[in-house]
Structures are given as structure tokens and as C-alpha cells.
């Protein structure tokens, strides 16, 4: 007898990670240690109050250390949310065909955003589109929409070229079951495989690809599209929109149907998916809400044309690495186990082009790979803006209540029944992408991608979760998408600063994850959202720990419990630096030392465990923790400061698009694992100052204990700390003093930070002498 269909044809499963129980027990033990730490702080405050020094430097030190430990404890609590119920899901796309016929598959709209042809090379954007146009998915159900916030004819030109190439590329990929459907990635992998390169078909394709690349490059260099490249009348009409007064900040809407499924065929006579270019209207006088605004325009325009129930959002710096991904993801949207309240299925953002040791930790393993598993066992991962398959309906209100819309044709239930290039459709599409269309509507507040934060993705998913939506994480063996991470230090830090600023905007808004989130999501999920929301507060403990103990050390002031005794001192029974007192147990100060040891090693070790179980190497983890320290004194701090200035209306930051281009020399250095500074940035000043203060205090500390061995025990932890930072900061000293290439730290930065270091040391000696 045949077993019931639903059990044999499971489309997905979920199982808890094996380390869950360990995580929970460890969290309990660690929590006890945290309480002890607070007790120690209480004791310190008590003894201070009993003494008469309440307002001296000791007060400042005790207070600062208390604040930093409170923030550390808070961040530790939020992080535990990811460790309480991590799960691993599995999909069985091979079972899908047992459940739905191909003609029953839902339509899929893909949104690709780009914003600047000089930071986001049009060829790469076009390759992103090619990689998804070539999905193993029925062409009549697939539409790719490109939003160009750069309003650039160069980008449009690249797409027109890509569409021509697609007519060959798509059938080639499908016939040969190609996995890498981004042509650039495909040809790069082909490399020097002489057998395959000599195949006539590949030769032809490659020549065609190269000549397309050349034309796009020529246009990019000239800054405009040459007449000779414009072959068809409708292309000429499109480019005619770039009149003299057309600028990226001020221009009318441009919509170009580049491929029309109903008409365009590939060289094998099969129809091709739709490909539509949109550059929404811009006016200098009106806010355009950056990527969030672009996505909302895409939501409306696509609704009038294809209105697919599932939308894939992709940044132009990511591309499909697996043509089967849509089918895999549908395992969550279709079949007997599908839940109608799943808003989206998120795939991890993964990157290529990262150097072997990932010196800048730009892989962001915790954010994109590890933490989402933790979220997934709760209500589901937060949205990272790209590589995400979203149910269109989720943009239009809670699962059970649909928000009303100003025009029914843009709602999720509307069935488009006119040809996409019909006059009516195009007229409506132009109307709804005008820059004041959203005035007095619910777009950005209750509908669509939400406005009000520089991290529209995080904010939008938070709002969706609080409305009752759930989300899933889909992380198969083969990366579904690959992309570029910023691989220049300043680029990475600026990106991180933008994220932090956006996150803290939500953290302290009326939608704060803790206050607004807890009643709606439960405390654990609210904590998970808070980790990111308050991400930049890491800066408080990191900055304090990067300066205060070191400045105290310079003055021979001890601020931590006693540590090891100096080895030359004659005592017996030292185990791991802990002296055994005559009664046999550790003494009180040494117990506190053990507590610190446990707290620090415990946190580091658990983090390393999570990292390595997700496939990370030791050296990558080392670099990750280094970047955490670096970010602490740079982007986290600057974001927090900027947020405070914003609150006082002093400064406002926009969405600075990260550059995806790198000079040759820079690339070479990056691939060798050499840090890239080169430009001057205020963030580099704080970074180099921290590095110098630690170096100086480490040297002075060592000199102090060598000359007076009795001090070793008192100052051990501070010497260890500054030594640890000095070790981490090695590439910074190199870039300041030993390098002559153009990626070194500019002299101005070195001089300023040396002066600042001097000033800090001088003021510290004044303060600590009181
Ligand atoms: O005014 C703008 C600015 C940006 N973008 C696009 O937004 C995407 C992300 O920009 P990028 O400079 O690459 O920023 P990242 O920091 O790398 O982006 C991360 O962070 C963003 C904000 O949280 C998310 O939207 C992204 O999906 C996520 O990858 C790119 O495709 C841009 O073209 C626009 O369309 N319009
Ligand atoms: Mn990006």
C-alpha cells in the first residue's frame, strides 16, 4: 500500500543543532559568573564609598569599568538568543515535481537594485541579471526588474547588450546543465581548460561575451553610449530620454521593456523571461528613500506588469550561483507542510573574492551564516536586503489583514491581464514611479519596504515579524548566491558605520526591539533583534577597555584583580598562574582573577566553537576578533557618535553606496593579506591612537615589572591586555612605520595620532596622580 503522500514527499525538514543543550547549560553557568562579576563591582563601589576618595580618579575608573561591563553583559544576553534554539533545515526539491506540475509553479519576479555605474560596474550588474534570467524556471513565469537609482544610460546600455547575449547564453546553460550561470564566473572557472575552450560553441560564446564587455567598457570610459552602438529604433527612443538636463538626481521616469516574454525568443526559438529596466523619477527637492524607495517603486511597477506572488530581492553585487535555487526555496512555499504565514525564505549572503584569511572579516560569518540559524529556531531570520525570496503579500499588511491600497492594480491580488508594453500598463507604471506618488499614502509606513532607517531590510523584517509573519532560512551546501564584499578597509568600515547607524536608529526608536518587540515577539526573539539594534554599543566597552586599563598601567595603577605572580619569585604550587594558599584553596583576589579568566576565555572559546563548526578556520576567526576590536574604536564608535549628533540635528548621513571597484595595486595587496589604509579618514586616527597607546603602555608596563618585580601580580592583567591589543595591532604599526607602498597609513594620520597619544598619556598621568 502506498503511504500517504505527505509523508513520502516531504519538501523540507528542520532539526535542532547538536550543540543546543551545551549552549543552554553554558549560558546558565556563564550567567552565574556574570552575577559574580556584578557582585565584584558592587564590592568595589562599596569600598570606594567607605573610603574618602569618592570623587578621585578611582571613582572614574570604577564607574567606567562598571558601564563597560554592563554593556558587555547586555550584549552577551542578546547574543544568547541565537544560541537557545538554533536549527538546521533541509529541502528536497526533487520531491517538488510529485506535488506540483511545472505549469502550477508560481510566477517569480526578481528585483535587482543598482545605484551608481562608477561604483557598481554595469557589466557586473548585467551579469547578475544574466545569472537569474538563466534560472531553471519556466521563462513565462520569470521576470527580472532592474532598478537604476543612478539613472544611467550606461546601465541601460549594459542591459540591452546583456539581453542580446542572453539569447545565446540561456539555451547554452540549459542544454549543458551549467551551474555557474553568471558568464563572468563561468568563463573565469573555465580558465585554461583547453578541451572545453576549444569547443566551437564556447569559443563563439566567449567572443560574443568579450565584445559585449568591450562595448560596455568603451561606453563607461566615454561616459555615454556611442551612436554606432545603438542599432534599433526603440533603443534610440530610450536613450533620447537622456536630455541635457537629465541628471541622476533630477530626471523623469525611464521604463524600458528590454525582453518581453510574449515576443522575444532565444536562438533555439524558446521564449525568454521578461527583463525590465526602471529608473524611477527623481527630483532634488524630494526625498527618495534610497534603496527602500527603489524597492517600493519596483513593487508597484512589477505589480502592474507581472505581479508575481514571490519576489526575489537581489543587490547588484550578488549573483545566482545555483540555477535550482527557486525550486529549492519553493519547498517552503508549496506542498502540504507549507505555512501561509511565512513572509520570506532567506538564503545566506556569501562572497567570493575574499582573501584566504579574510583579513577584514568581510564574510560576516556570524551575521549571514551563523546567527540566522539561531533566529530560524525562533520566528525566523531578519532580512538582509538581498538573496531573499519574499511573498509579495507580506508587504501589504499582517497575514490576516490586507491593507487597503490607493490603486487596486498594484495590490497583491490583482491579476495583470494586459501585455506588459501596452499603453495603459506603461502609463500607470510611469504614474506610480513618479517621485511624489507616495505622498499621503501608506508606502513606507504600513506598506512595502519601511522607511526611517538606513537599514531598511532589518527594519522591514522587524515590522513584519511583529505583525505575525514568520520567516525561514535556507542554507544548502552549494551557496545559492555569491557576491562581492567591500575589500578595502575604509570601504568596509564605512559600510559597517552605515549599518550601525541605521540599526541604532531602530534600536532607540518607538519600534525598539526590546520595548515594542518583546510583547509581540517574546523576549528571546526580541533579544535576537536587539543584538543588531544595539550593535554599535559594543563601542563603549571596547573603547574603554582599549584605553583605560592601559593609561592606568602607564601610571602603575592596578585596576583588575591580581593575576600571576612573577615567575622569579620563589613560591611553590602555582597552577596556571593561580597561587594555592596555605589552606589549599585560592585566595580571594585570585578567585576574582579566575572569574575574569573564565569570562574572557569562555566567551572567546564559545565564539570560536560556533565559528569553526560553521566551517571557519582558526586564522579567519583570529581576524574576525581583530576586526571586532578595530570596529569597536572606529565604525561602532563613529556610528554611535553620529547617532547622538543626529539626535541634536547636527548631522545626517545618507546611504553611501559601497564601491565595488578596486585598483590593481590594492587588489594585489589585499590578496597578499596586507592591510589597506592609503586614504586619510577620522576612523583611522582613532584606530592608530588606540594602537599606539597600547604599544606604549605595554612597553612601559613591562619595564615597570622588570624594574620592580613585586608589581607583576598587580599589573598582570593590564599588561596582558595591552600585549594582546599590541599583538592584534601589528599590521597597524607596520602600516605606520615600516611600509612605503601607497596603502600605508598616511603621515598626517600617524602624526596626529602620535600627538593624541602624547596628550592622552600626559592627561592620564595628571589624573592618576590625584
Ligand atoms: O540610493 C540607493 C542606494 C543603494 N541602492 C542599492 O542598494 C544595494 C545595497 O547597497 P550597497 O552599497 O551594496 O550596500 P551594502 O551595505 O553592501 O548592502 C547591505 O546593506 C543594505 C542596507 O542594510 C541592504 O539593503 C543590502 O541588501 C545589504 O547587502 C545596492 O544594490 C545598491 O545599488 C539603491 O538602489 N539606491
Ligand atoms: Mn553590497
From TrEMBL:
The active site is at residues 149, 457. GO terms for molecular function: cellulose synthase (UDP-forming) activity. The keyword Glycosyltransferase applies. The chain crosses the membrane at residues 21-39, 59-78, 521-548, 591-609, 677-703, 715-733, 745-768. It comes from the Eukaryota. UDP-alpha-D-glucose binds at residues 119-120, 149. GO terms for biological process: cell wall organization; cellulose biosynthetic process. InterPro entries: Cellulose_synth, Nucleotide-diphossugar_trans. GO terms for cellular component: endomembrane system; membrane. Pfam families: Cellulose_synt. Keywords: Cell wall biogenesis/degradation, Glycosyltransferase, Membrane, Transferase, Transmembrane, Transmembrane helix. Mn(2+) binds at residues 291, 315. Gene3D superfamilies: Spore Coat Polysaccharide Biosynthesis Protein SpsA, Chain A (3.90.550.10). It is found in: Endomembrane system. PANTHER family: X-BOX TRANSCRIPTION FACTOR-RELATED. This is Cellulose synthase.
Amino acid at each position: 500500500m502506498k503511504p500517504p503522500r505527505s509523508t513520502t514527499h516531504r519538501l523540507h525538514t528542520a532539526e535542532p543543532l547538536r550543540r543546543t543543550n551545551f549552549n543552554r547549560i553554558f549560558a546558565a553557568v556563564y550567567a552565574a559568573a556574570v552575577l559574580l562579576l556584578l557582585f565584584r563591582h558592587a564590592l568595589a563601589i562599596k569600598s570606594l564609598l567607605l573610603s574618602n576618595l569618592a570623587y578621585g580618579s578611582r571613582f572614574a575608573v570604577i564607574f567606567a569599568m562598571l558601564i563597560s561591563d554592563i554593556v558587555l553583559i547586555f550584549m552577551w544576553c542578546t547574543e544568547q538568543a541565537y544560541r537557545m534554539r538554533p536549527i538546521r533545515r533541509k529541502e528536497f526539491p526533487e520531491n517538488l515535481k510529485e506535488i506540483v506540475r511545472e505549469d502550477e509553479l508560481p510566477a517569480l519576479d526578481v528585483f535587482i537594485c543598482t545605484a551608481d555605474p562608477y561604483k557598481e560596474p554595469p557589466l557586473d550588474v548585467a551579469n547578475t541579471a544574466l545569472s537569474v534570467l538563466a534560472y531553471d524556471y519556466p521563462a513565462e513565469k520569470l521576470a527580472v526588474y532592474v532598478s537604476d537609482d543612478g539613472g544611467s544610460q550606461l546601465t541601460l546600455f549594459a542591459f540591452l547588450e546583456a539581453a542580446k547575449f542572453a539569447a545565446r547564453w540561456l539555451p547554452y546553460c540549459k542544454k549543458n546543465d551549467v551551474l555557474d550561470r553568471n558568464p563572468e564566473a563561468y568563463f573565469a572557472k573555465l580558465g585554461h581548460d583547453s578541451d572545453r575552450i576549444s569547443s566551437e560553441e564556447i569559443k563563439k560564446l566567449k567572443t560574443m561575451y568579450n565584445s559585449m564587455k568591450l562595448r560596455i567598457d568603451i561606453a563607461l570610459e566615454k561616459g555615454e553610449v556611442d551612436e554606432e552602438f545603438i542599432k534599433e529604433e526603440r533603443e534610440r527612443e530610450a536613450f533620447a530620454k537622456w536630455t541635457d538636463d537629465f541628471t541622476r538626481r533630477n530626471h523623469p521616469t525611464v521604463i524600458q521593456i528590454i525582453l518581453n516574454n510574449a515576443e522575444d525568443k532565444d536562438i533555439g526559438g524558446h521564449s525568454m523571461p521578461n527583463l525590465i529596466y526602471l529608473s524611477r523619477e527623481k527630483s532634488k527637492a524630494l526625498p527618495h528613500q534610497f534603496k527602500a524607495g527603489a524597492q517600493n517603486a519596483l513593487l508597484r511597477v512589477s505589480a502592474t506588469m507581472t505581479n508575481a506572488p514571490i519576489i526575489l530581492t537581489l543587490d547588484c553585487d550578488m549573483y545566482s550561483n545555483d540555477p535550482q535555487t527557486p525550486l529549492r526555496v519553493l519547498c517552503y512555499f508549496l506542498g502540504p507542510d507549507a505555512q501561509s504565514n511565512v513572509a520570506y525564505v532567506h538564503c545566506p549572503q556569501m562572497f567570493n573574492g575574499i582573501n584566504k584569511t579574510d583579513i577584514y572579516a568581510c564574510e560576516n560569518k556570524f551575521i549571514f551564516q551563523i546567527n540566522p540559524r539561531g533566529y530560524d529556531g525562533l520566528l525566523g531570520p531578519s532580512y538582509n536586503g538581498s538573496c531573499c525570496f519574499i511573498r509579495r503579500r507580506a508587504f501589504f499588511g499582517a497575514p490576516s489583514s490586507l491593507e487597503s491600497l490607493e490603486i487596486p492594480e498594484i495590490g497583491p491580488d490583482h491579476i495583470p491581464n494586459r501585455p506588459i508594453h501596452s499603453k495603459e500598463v506603461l502609463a500607470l507604471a510611469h504614474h506610480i514611479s513618479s517621485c511624489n506618488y507616495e505622498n499621503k499614502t501608506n508606502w513606507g509606513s504600513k506598506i512595502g519596504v519601511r522607511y526611517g532607517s538606513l537599514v531598511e531590510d532589518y527594519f522591514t523584517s522587524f515590522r513584519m515579524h511583529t505583525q505575525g509573519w514568520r520567516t525561514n532560512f535556507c542554507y544548502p551546501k552549494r551557496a545559492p548566491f555569491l557576491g562581492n564584499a567591500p575589500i578595502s578597509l575604509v570601504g568596509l568600515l564605512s559600510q559597517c558605520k552605515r549599518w550601525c547607524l541605521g540599526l541604532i536608529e531602530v534600536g532607540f526608536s518607538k519600534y525598539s526591539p526590546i520595548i515594542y518587540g518583546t510583547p509581540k515577539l517574546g523576549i528571546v526573539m526580541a533579544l535576537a533583534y536587539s543584538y543588531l539594534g544595539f550593535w554599535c554599543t559594543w563601542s563603549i566597552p571596547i573603547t574603554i577597555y582599549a584605553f583605560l586599563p592601559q593609561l592606568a598601567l602607564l601610571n602603575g595603577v592596578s585596576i583588575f584583580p591580581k593575576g600571576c605572580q612573577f615567575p622569579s619569585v620563589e613560591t611553590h604550587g602555582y597552577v596556571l598562574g593561580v597561587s594555592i594558599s596555605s589552606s589549599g584553596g585560592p585566595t580571594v583576589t585570585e578567585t576574582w582573577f579566575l572569574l575574569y579568566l573564565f569570562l574572557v576565555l569562555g566567551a572567546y572559546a564559545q565564539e570560536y566553537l560556533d565559528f569553526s563548526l560553521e566551517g571557519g578556520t582558526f586564522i579567519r576567526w583570529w581576524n574576525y576578533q581583530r576586526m571586532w576590536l578595530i570596529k569597536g574604536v572606529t565604525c561602532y564608535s563613529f556610528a554611535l557618535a553620529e547617532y547622538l549628533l543626529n539626535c541634536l540635528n547636527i548631522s545626517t548621513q545618507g546611504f553611501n553606496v559601497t564601491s565595488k571597484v578596486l585598483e590593481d595595486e590594492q587588489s594585489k595587496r589585499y590578496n597578499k593579506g596586507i592591510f589597506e589604509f592609503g586614504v586619510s579618514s577620522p576612523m583611522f586616527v582613532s584606530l592608530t591612537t588606540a594602537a599606539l597607546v597600547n604599544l606604549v603602555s605595554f612597553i612601559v608596563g613591562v619595564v615597570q615589572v622588570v624594574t620592580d618585580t613585586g608589581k607583576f601580580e598587580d599589573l598582570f592583567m593590564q599588561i596582558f591586555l595591552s600585549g594582546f591589543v599590541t599583538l592584534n595591532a601589528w599590521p597597524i604599526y607596520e602600516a605606520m612605520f615600516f611600509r612605503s607602498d601607497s596603502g600605508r597609513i598616511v603621515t598626517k594620520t600617524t602624526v596626529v595620532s602620535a600627538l593624541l597619544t602624547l596628550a592622552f598619556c600626559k592627561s592620564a598621568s595628571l589624573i592618576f596622580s590625584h
